[in-house]
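Quick one, probably user error.
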């Protein structure tokens, strides 16, 4: 997947310098569009993906929530880029939140920042991503052009009124511990549905992991959002 080495410097005041740009906390995402399909997968099929991380998958009746997230970042401290994420709901030492397992992005700056600041498993890919009202479409390749996945997510036309606010803790295992990062979000223009189609490539690790999960034909839910804004705090390094 190419040269993904992180080039980032932690400064004495707690800020980071990446590619000559200084980032201070909280890091702010002012405007993005997003879509997410939530699937219930068999916990025993997903357990190998967290082996040795110190995380426990959240499991109800032998099923774990898995998320396929598409995000079009438009105005934020990390630049203008697209992102595709695969995550699972997990627990660690009393915290429950998304364990982001795969996170291809389309720009090197955000890759380096995400890895250095929060331990996120970002890698460079190519994404043709469109999130437009009730529909979201994505064609994802790695940096060599190899097909990873193509997805179409659809929701119903009516939008939910108002703006939703809330917070989550993103969990990112690393050697010796787990980074727990607080995220505070505001989401508007939300639509919901249950329609999704997913075509997986062959030979790429992300595609093969998803294939091994045997995702249900229909997701539990699909959500699109016209307006997403959030802030991320520094990662708390929690012992494994």
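Nope, works fine. Designed sequence:
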């Amino acid at each position: 997947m190419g040269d993904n080495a992180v080039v980032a410097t932690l400064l004495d005041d707690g800020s980071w310098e990446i590619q000559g740009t200084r980032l201070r906390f909280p890091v702010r995402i002012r405007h993005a569009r997003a879509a997410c399909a939530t699937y219930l997968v068999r916990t025993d099929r997903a357990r190998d993906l967290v082996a040795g991380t110190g995380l426990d998958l959240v499991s109800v009746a032998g099923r774990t929530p898995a998320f396929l997230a598409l995000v079009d970042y438009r105005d934020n401290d990390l630049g203008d880029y697209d992102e595709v994420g695969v995550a699972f709901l997990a627990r660690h030492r009393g915290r429950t939140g998304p364990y982001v397992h795969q996170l291809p992005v389309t720009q090197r700056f955000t890759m380096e920042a995400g890895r250095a600041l929060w331990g996120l498993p970002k890698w460079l890919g190519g994404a043709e991503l469109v999130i437009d009202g009730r529909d979201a479409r994505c064609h994802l390749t790695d940096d060599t052009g190899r097909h990873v996945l193509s997805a179409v997510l659809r929701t119903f036309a009516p939008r939910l009124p108002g703006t939703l606010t809330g917070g989550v803790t993103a969990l990112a295992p690393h050697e010796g511990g787990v980074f727990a990062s607080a995220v505070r979000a505001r989401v508007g223009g939300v639509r919901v549905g249950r329609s999704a189609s997913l075509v997986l490539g062959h030979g790429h690790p992300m595609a093969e992991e998803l294939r091994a999960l045997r995702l249900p034909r229909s997701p539990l839910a699909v959500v699109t959002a016209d307006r997403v804004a959030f802030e991320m705090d520094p990662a708390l390094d929690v012992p494994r």
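The mean pLDDT is 95.
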